[in-house]
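Running co-folding for S-adenosyl-L-homocysteine.
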Amino acid sequence: MPAPGELVFEVPARGNPPLHLVDLDVDGRRAAMADLGLPAFRADQVSRHWFGRLDDDPSTWTDISPTDRETVGALLPPLLTPVRKLTCDDGSTVKFLWRLYDGSRVESVLMGYRDRITICVSSQAGCGMKCPFCATGQAGLTRNLSTAEIVEQVLAGSRMVRSGEFPGDRERVSNVVFMGMGEPLANYRALMGAIHRLVDPVPAGLGMSARGITVSTVGLVPRMRELADEGLPLRLAVSLHAPDDELRDTLVPINTRYRVAEVLDAAWFYAERTGRRISIEYALIKDVNDQRWRAELLANRLRGHLVHVNLIPLNPTPGSQWTASRPDDERAFVRVLEEAHVPVTVRDTRGREIDGACGQLAAAAP
Ligand code: SAH
């Protein structure tokens, strides 16, 4: 039981999604084959189809006998049922709404750029962090996703790219950002399982580059430090949104537990361990966090560190009294950071018309 007043950020799943091949590492897959009465090498064959060829249709796996293909099906339950697929930006942004085994819904967004294809995935159904400007935060946390539920979002996007249905001539999804629904570091075990499936070479996983994977967090300090010690050059994004504790306590409520100074210390520790530049996410909210003095305080706290600031014009959620900053205030904010030699960019927000932009993923009923 948590101590009185303690914030609980990890809720045990009520019931678990069915076990899937993708939940298991190589040894686990071999053991699972044995449990099904199949030779261990079947694990390797199935994994090559699943991760190497992105082929999820066992009827085409002709190197495996039809009876064994049927038996293996027990480890391949469908985890994501498509509810809706919405497209905008000339087809280069696609939002998927999925239904999970227990009726929970999550979303992912596939985005094509000139030099890469990125998929934004969910790590939880809902989110327990309660940030008042974020659509996902409003409904609260339903449950953690399993490793396979996370990885299957990436695979669904990859299969779409592979099938040629997605515009552009890129052949693979190269980047994954954990910026969909949920707080990834509050679902740490499943997150690390998913990351291993993404980066481990075929047949263990997809063989993606860890450098192309971004984990975004509200600042769960102990987990940020743990992530730094995983030995993977993942990109870490920290959703700061305010440079002072007084305002951050209201915008990112977990700040009452992990203060700005501790979050930034953990970020610098991460940068030192991994050599990777920290991304600071800062949603610019008109007259709330966009004042010149806050830009100066932010610059002072970040200057001299391995860091990049991503300013996101706030995407207002339905019923919110907040809106994006005035263009002049945004420009002034950028200038203060630039003058302090803190690298800064304003994020291009994709998928606005399909409610697929930052902070809008709410998995509304059809
Ligand atoms: N829980 C993680 C990841 C999910 S949110 C985190 O908070 O980092 C991904 C990013 O979108 C975060 O930086 C989040 O603060 C931002 N975001 C949420 N709602 C938003 C909104 N309405 N407008 C702009 N950005 C928003």
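Result summary
Residues 36 and 324 are 55 Å apart (CA to CA).
Residues 1-13 have pLDDT under 50 and may be disordered.
Job closed.
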